[in-house]
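can u pls check wat happens w/ 6-O-phosphono-alpha-D-fructofuranose
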Amino acid sequence: MSNKISLTRYLVEQQRVHGHIPSQLRLLIEVVARACKSVSQAVNKGALGGVLGSAETENVQGEMQKKLDIIANEVLIEANEWGGHLAAMASEEMEGIYVVPNRYPKGEYLLLFDPLDGSSNIDVNVSIGTIFSVLKMPEGDRGVDEGDFLQPGRQQVAAGYCVYGPQTTLVLTVGDGVAMFTLDREQGSFVLTQENVRIPEDTKEFAINMSNMRHWDAPVRRYIDECLQGKDGPRGKDFNMRWIASMVADVHRILTRGGIFMYPWDKREPDKPGKLRLMYEANPMSWLVEQAGGAATNGRQRILDIQPRKLHERVSVILGSKNEVERVTGYHGA
Ligand code: P6P
């Protein structure tokens, strides 16, 4: 008897044993996972599938879309719209929310996603991924609108990502720690390969785009300067740097071996709080990091406590090993 635990069995146990998730949420997560398997197949085809390169269109963020951005978005919409679990969806690639069509039953959940994060890496064969977040539809029998999505990240009921790298790995939390599932392509199923993921509280590795250094705020510059001074400086140890330019890949490394990830506010766009998106990048990643014992802040407050004002709101992100996050901003974690 194989001792492999499938995603389905893990979720059934979360539902039955821990009473952590209702069946509708379990089924929703399984649909998202199946959609990620389809995205993985498309990503893995690369040039052979004619899916590389630009789609010659811009998304709501004003960013040039890759063909795979659009493909991944369509896969996630089509996989999730008919199941009866959702009232609506929101995507980095769509300006407004996507209300489940009346021909399908509506459910009590809201699904938000960045269908393909890190798409600047697609054409150079570097890891990319899908990030997702699940909220509950607020009570009331009225129709769903964008305001229903504007909930702080602490109200998420599920969050995760699927990283399309040397392995395709689904990383998930439903509030009972973080579990990792590796896609077994022979079986076509996600298999539990790690649970109770813990981020070391200290690290010697930071992730930031150093080319933006002249634009940062003083606390971030001070923190990085101290790291660069190494063991001769106030930190008393040498640091290493990694920057993959795929948040999914950088966060996966931090969940796996610790570290700090920073995309801080910078003065290039002073009226924007940051580059990354709160609802479907920072919130799901912050919950995962906190569930694994790390911390996540925008430099002034816990990311999960931020009250969103608009769907595509941006945010400054400093997350990872708790003691490092605290050192940057004096932040004391959740
Ligand atoms: P830069 C990818 O476009 C993304 O949203 C994150 O995944 C990544 O961490 C960041 O932007 C990379 O930004 O400015 O270094 O290209």
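The mean pLDDT is 94.
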